[in-house]
Structure formats: C-alpha cells, structure tokens
Amino acid sequence: MSSMNLEPVTYTPIGEVHCDFGEPSNPKEMRNALSTLEIDEKYLETFEGLEKFEHIIVIYHIHRALGYDPKVHPMGDESIPKRGVLATRSPRRPNPIGLTVVQVLSIEGNQIAVTGLDALDGSPILDVKPYEEHFDSPAGAEMERDPDYRPREG
Amino acid sequence: MSSMNLEPVTYTPIGEVHCDFGEPSNPKEMRNALSTLEIDEKYLETFEGLEKFEHIIVIYHIHRALGYDPKVHPMGDESIPKRGVLATRSPRRPNPIGLTVVQVLSIEGNQIAVTGLDALDGSPILDVKPYEEHFDSPAGAEMERDPDYRPREG
Q1: Who among B4, B84, B115 is closest to A16 (CB)?
Q2: Residue among A89, A103, A127 minimizing CB distance to B97
Q3: Do A11 and B6 touch (CB under 8 A)?
Q4: Beta strand pairing status for B71-72 and A34-39?
Q5: What sign for the dihedral angle of Cα A63, A67, A72, A77?
Q6: Residues of chain B whose pLDDT is less than 50?
Q7: Partner-chain contact B145 A32, CB within 8 Å
Q8: Are B103 and A103 contacting, i.e. CB atoms less than 8 angstroms apart?
C-alpha cells in the first residue's frame, strides 16, 4: 500500500440551479431547456467578466444521488454490457459531482441564464469556469505542444 | 433573498495524482509531462472499461490553493485587466476544484497513466469521467437538439 492522502474534502456551494425539472427526467429534454444559476450575492464580484464567454463549465453536486453500484449499464441501457461506473456518466458515482458545458444566454445580477445543463432543480453549484479549448478539449494537449500556441481570450 | 441550500458538501478522494511537479510550475510543461492517477484499490471495479476511452476528465482537489482574491489578472498576466476569479481558470477560487481533459496512455491495476494533466503531485482525485462530446464540447448542446443524435460508445 502506498500512503495516499484520502482525507475528506469539504466545499461550500456558491449557488443553486433553478429549472423546471425537480425529478430525474429525460437528459436530452433537460439540456434543451433553460436553467438559471442563482449565485450567492456574496460572490457577485467573482464572476464579473464571465459574460465574455459563450460557454462555461458548471460543476455541481448531484444532491439526489444516493450511493452507487460499482458496475452499471451505460445510460441504463441493458443492451450495453455493464462496465465500471467511473467509465460512464452515471450520476450515481463514488463522489456525485456533475459537470456540464453550457451556453450562457444572459447574466443579470446574480442570475446566470444557461441552456445545456442537465442538473435537477435545487442542485448546489460548486464552481463555474470559462470553457477554454486548451484545457477542455481533447485537442488541447496537442495545442500546448506547439510552443507558439497562446490561449484565446474571451 | 431566496432560500438557497448552501449546506457544505463533503467528498472522499478516490485516489491521488503522482507526477514530477511538487510545486507550482509552468502549466504547459506540466501538461506535456506524464502523470499517474493512483486509485484506491477499493475502487478497482469502478473504472473497468475506462480503457475504452482515449480521453477522460479528471476532477481533483487543488490542495495547495489557500483562499482566493475576488478579482485577478487572468493567467497572472498584468497586461490583461483584472476580472472575476470565476471568469478565469485560476486555481485559487472559492471552491478549489481542478478539471482537466487528459489523454489515457495505459491502465495497469490501479494506476492510470495520462498526459495533459496540470495537477501537482499529491493532488487528491475526486472523480474521473469518460470524455463525451455531447456533454463536454460546446457543440454538444447542438447535437442534442438533433433527435437522431446518439452518443458514440467508447
């Protein structure tokens, strides 16, 4: 055994998702609908400039997920053989952290309107990040091998 | 004031990053180097099948980040005006959660060798997910508006 540091980590949500889906629903319908990210007013200053980005990443706590099975059918489709839950996007996973790239429609005060999110109403928001190709796309590592590559701003 | 649920959320890391970078370093150099994700053996079954994916997303705790400033110069570059820290990829943010798309080189036992990661040695790993275009690329929402779109497997 190596001596890994597996001490628990605690985060305080910065806001909450609002949308029309209070119960697990068709993910495609959820992602095609509007969601609002309501950010705690004390963080207002921290997302100044986020409107420069068309796409952002929302990291949220999947608050309705309880426990997990080590192996599952991807997308619950029994025609696909079971595999490890970490090799799927199942919401029921060891740490139920949700992650979606969404499109920003508007930012007014502490309300960020987005489309593309698949989080249930009331999901606690842990972090938002601008989507940046060099970090977030499979081609990103290639870009960084090019000494002349510079991230795009905005 | 709305009544948001901002109760703290606690996660137990599933593993730890190993790499040659113990101190903050040039992100490009870090991403071009090899890193190993050592996963707690009790989760062995949960990542069976992850080898089907060329790219995965690593979500980790930025354990060396202490506190944050509400507004910062992006990439520490003083020639770029300050903006809200959540509109940058600064590691010092309200919840120091790191997120990088990496390329899988090999999986042997509980060791996942990757390139493209920008996490310091010893970073606690919170989650790994297969990279899936319809969730993780800006074009994803468009794909899901197409009723005939089906996610690719593997």
Answers
A1: B4
A2: A127
A3: no
A4: unpaired
A5: negative
A6: 1, 154
A7: yes
A8: no
Interface with A, mutate which of B10, B14, B69, B95 (most A CBs under 10 A): B95
Q: How far is B23 from chain A (nearest CA, A)?
A: 17
Question: How many contacts, defined by CB atoms under 8 Å, are there between A and B?
Answer: 246
Q: Which residues pair with A71 in a beta bridge?
A: A84
pLDDT at position B141 is 62
Asked if residues B61 and B22 have their Cβ atoms less than 8 Å apart, the reply is no
Q: Which of A90, A3, A65, A71 is nearest to B43 (CA)?
A: A71
Q: Do B87 and A38 touch (CB under 8 A)?
A: no
Of the partner residues B53, B75, B140, the one whose CB lies closest to the CB of residue A101 = B140
For the entire predicted model, the pTM comes to 0.92
pLDDT tens digit string along A69-104? 999 999 888 999 999 999 999 999 999 999 999 999
Residues of chain A with C-beta less than 8 angstroms from the C-beta of B40: 4, 6
Read off φ and ψ for residue A119, nearest 5 degrees: -95, 145
| Per-residue tens of pLDDT for chain A, all 154 residues | 467 889 999 999 999 999 999 998 888 899 899 999 999 999 999 999 999 999 999 999 999 998 999 999 998 889 999 999 999 999 999 999 999 999 999 999 999 999 999 999 999 999 999 998 877 888 776 676 666 666 555 4
Min Cα distance B20 → chain A (Å) is: 16
Length of chain A: 154
Record the tokens describing residue A19, joined without a space: 């949308």
For residue B148, list chain A residues with Cβ-Cβ distance below 8 A. Answer: none
Q: Could you tell me how far CA B154 lies from the centroid of its own chain?
A: 20
- What is the chain B residue with the closest CA to A148? B28
The whole-angstrom separation of Cα B51 and Cα B105 is 9
